[in-house]
Design goal:
Layout lengths: L6 E3 L5 E6 L2 E6 L5 E6 L5 E6 L5 E6 L3 E6 L6 E7 L5 E6 L5 E6 L3 E6 L5 E6 L5 E6 L5 E6 L3 E6 L5 E6 L5 E6 L5 E6 L4 E5 L5 E5 L6 E6 L5 E6 L3 E6 L11 E2 L6 E4 L5 E5 L5 E5 L4
Antiparallel strand pairs: 1-2, 2-3, 3-4, 5-6, 6-7, 7-8, 9-10, 10-11, 11-12, 13-14, 14-15, 15-16, 17-18, 18-19, 19-20, 21-22, 22-23, 23-24, 25-26, 26-27
C-alpha cells in the first residue's frame, strides 16, 4: 500500500492523486491525462490517500478539515467533510482494512475517523508535541506516529492506548513507515539518518547513512526487502533492509530537487514530484 502524502498512487496503479493548492487532481498514469479534479477545500491541501479498495480518496490540509471523495465513477463527489482539528492537518492515512482513517495536526491530536461515514471514533493526545507523520501496521491494529518530541509511539487501534514509546533520534523526525510484513518500522530525521526498528521489541536494528541532506521520504517495497528514501536535495537511494546497506548503482539524482515520492502498490512504479511542477513516473521493475 502506497504511503500517503500530497502525491499518491491508486491501489491498482492506474491513477495518481496530486494535491496542488486547494485542488486535487487525478491523473492517468499511462498517459498523464487529467481524469478528474476535486474541488472543495478552501485552503491548501497537504495530504491525499486512497482507500485500499481504490473507491475513496481522503484529503486534508490547511483548512483543518478532512474530506472523503467518491472516485469510483467520474463525478468526484464529496462524500463527507469532517471538522474537528483546530489547526492545519499534516497527513491522512487509511488503515489497510479500510475501516479507519487517521489524521494528524499541529493541534497535537491524532483523530481516528470511521470509514465511510466519517464519524469521529477517538482523539489521541500525546503528552507533548504533535505527530509529524503516521503509519498503520499491515494488520490495522497498530498506528505508529513520528512525533515532534523525537519519539515514536505505537497506538492500539481502535482503543488509542499507547502500547510503546521510545526516543528514535536526536533531532526532529521527518518520516515514518511500516514494512508490509509488519516486522520493521523505518524512521527518518533531521540528523540525516534513517533508522530501522524491530516493531515487536522496538530495538534499534540498524542505521542507514548516506544522505547529505534531510531524508524526508520513505517507502518499503511490497516484499519488505527494499527501502526507498528521498531527500530534499533530490537524491533517491535504495537500501537493503536485510543488510542495512545501500544497493550499488541505485542512487538517482533528480535535477531541481525533490518534493515528494510515491511507490505503486506492486512496487513497479515510482512517482516523483519536483519544484518545477513536473511529476515523473519511473519503472522500477520491467515486465
Amino acid at each position: 500500500m502506497t504511503r500517503p502524502g500530497w502525491l499518491s498512487f491508486s491501489p491498482d496503479g492506474k491513477f495518481l492523486a496530486v494535491a496542488g493548492g486547494k485542488e486535487i487532481k487525478l491523473l492517468q498514469v499511462q498517459d498523464g491525462k487529467l481524469a478528474m479534479t476535486l474541488v472543495g477545500h478552501n485552503n491548501n491541501v497537504f495530504s491525499v490517500a486512497f482507500s485500499p479498495d481504490g473507491k475513496t480518496l481522503a484529503s486534508a490540509g490547511a483548512d483543518r478539515t478532512v474530506k472523503l471523495w467518491d472516485i469510483s465513477g467520474s463525478s468526484g463527489k464529496e462524500l463527507v467533510s469532517m471538522p474537528g482539528h483546530t489547526q492545519q492537518i499534516f497527513e491522512v492515512a487509511f488503515s489497510p482494512d479500510g475501516k479507519t482513517l487517521a489524521s494528524t495536526s499541529f493541534d497535537g491530536s491524532i483523530k481516528l475517523w470511521e470509514v465511510p461515514g466519517g464519524k469521529l471514533l477517538s482523539s489521541l493526545q500525546a503528552p507533548k508535541g504533535y505527530a509529524v507523520r503516521l503509519a498503520f501496521s499491515p494488520d490495522s491494529k497498530t498506528l505508529a506516529s513520528a512525533n515532534s518530541d523525537l519519539t515514536v509511539r505505537l497506538w492500539e487501534i481502535p482503543g488509542g492506548k499507547v502500547l510503546k514509546s521510545w526516543q528514535a533520534h536526536e533531532y526532529t523526525l521527518s518520516e515514518i513507515a511500516f514494512s508490509p510484513d509488519g516486522k520493521t518500522i523505518a524512521t527518518a530525521s533531521y540528523d540525516k539518518t534513517i533508522k530501522l526498528w524491530d516493531s515487536n521489541s522496538t530495538k534499534d536494528s540498524g542505521t542507514l547513512l548516506g544522505h547529505a541532506e534531510l531524508p524526508s521520504l520513505l517507502e518499503f517495497s511490497p516484499d519488505s526487502n527494499l527501502l526507498i528514501s528521498g531527500s530534499q536535495d533530490g537524491i533517491i537511494k535504495f537500501w537493503s533492509v536485510n543488510t542495512k546497506k545501500e544497493l550499488s548503482n541505485t542512487t538517482t539524482e533528480q535535477t531541481g530537487g525533490l518534493l515528494t515520492l510515491a511507490l505503486s502498490s506492486d512496487g513497479k512504479l515510482l512517482a516523483t514530484a519536483h519544484p518545477d511542477s513536473i511529476i515523473k513516473v519511473w519503472e522500477l521493475v520491467k515486465e
